[in-house]
Write a sequence for this structure.
């Protein structure tokens, strides 16, 4: 069994199945990608995994624990973090502030301890500040620590969003179209960055992405969805040569 397993996931909205009987086996230490045309159910799958939606049928098992329907904040504490297709930074806050906010997820201090700023909280706060600086250095954003998030170039805003997810110390990182809107140079940098953080932070990564060059470069395994149904899975080479995948992307009539 992998680090995360989706078992027969199905979710309906108004009688329409957005995801149907989906099974995923996300192996620890690998990069897995989910691809497919728009409307295939990819982001809906991410939303089920992270607790935004509760499936109509099926289960999500993370490291042996059933997390189906669990609150998103509790799922984050267990070790699953995500980014979004549309960047969701605190734009008026600094780079440093954006990252340290995420670290509060792992605070052990209670409300009273933090409100009164007792020694236990002060110690945690000092550790958070130190860890935030170290994290920004590891992702090559330390030189921007005092810059507002919305002043960064687009590619670095994407990197900051990933850094904020890393601040929660995940074991599984979900990236929703990390190269969306990027030019070729930015996409190459993002490809290298994903491979780097996977090794540096000992991560398992699940990606949704439309840029096939990035997907083929970083993925160990690929799952292909179309209209909420998984139509193929395998290595990048196997998926590239799969006739069902070609038909889904090009609109080819398989019976022609």
């Amino acid at each position: 069994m992998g680090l995360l397993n989706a078992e027969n996931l199905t979710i309906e909205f108004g009688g329409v199945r957005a995801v149907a009987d989906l099974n995923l086996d996300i192996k620890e230490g690998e990069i897995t990608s989910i691809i497919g045309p728009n409307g295939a159910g990819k982001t809906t799958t991410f939303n089920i995994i992270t607790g935004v939606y509760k499936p109509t049928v099926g289960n999500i098992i993370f490291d042996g624990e059933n997390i189906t329907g669990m609150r998103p904040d509790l799922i984050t504490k267990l070790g699953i973090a995500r980014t979004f297709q549309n960047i969701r930074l605190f734009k008026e806050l600094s780079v440093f502030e954006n990252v340290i906010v995420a670290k509060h997820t792992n605070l052990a201090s209670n409300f009273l301890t933090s409100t009164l700023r007792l020694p236990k909280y002060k110690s945690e706060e000092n550790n958070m500040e130190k860890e935030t600086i170290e994290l920004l250095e590891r992702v090559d954003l330390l030189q921007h620590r005092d810059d507002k998030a919305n002043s960064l170039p687009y590619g670095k805003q994407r990197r900051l969003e990933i850094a904020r997810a890393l601040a929660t110390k995940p074991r599984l990182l979900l990236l929703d179209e990390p190269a969306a809107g990027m030019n070729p140079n930015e996409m190459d940098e993002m490809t290298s960055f994903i491979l780097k953080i996977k090794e540096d932070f000992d991560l398992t990564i699940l990606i949704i992405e439309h840029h096939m060059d990035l997907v083929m470069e970083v993925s160990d395994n690929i799952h292909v969805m179309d209209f909420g149904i998984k139509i193929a899975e395998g290595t990048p080479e196997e998926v590239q040569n799969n006739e069902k995948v070609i038909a889904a992307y090009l609109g080819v009539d398989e019976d022609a």
About this structure: The mean pLDDT is 91. Residues 22 and 174 are 17 Å apart (CA to CA). DSSP finds ten helices and ten strands in the chain.
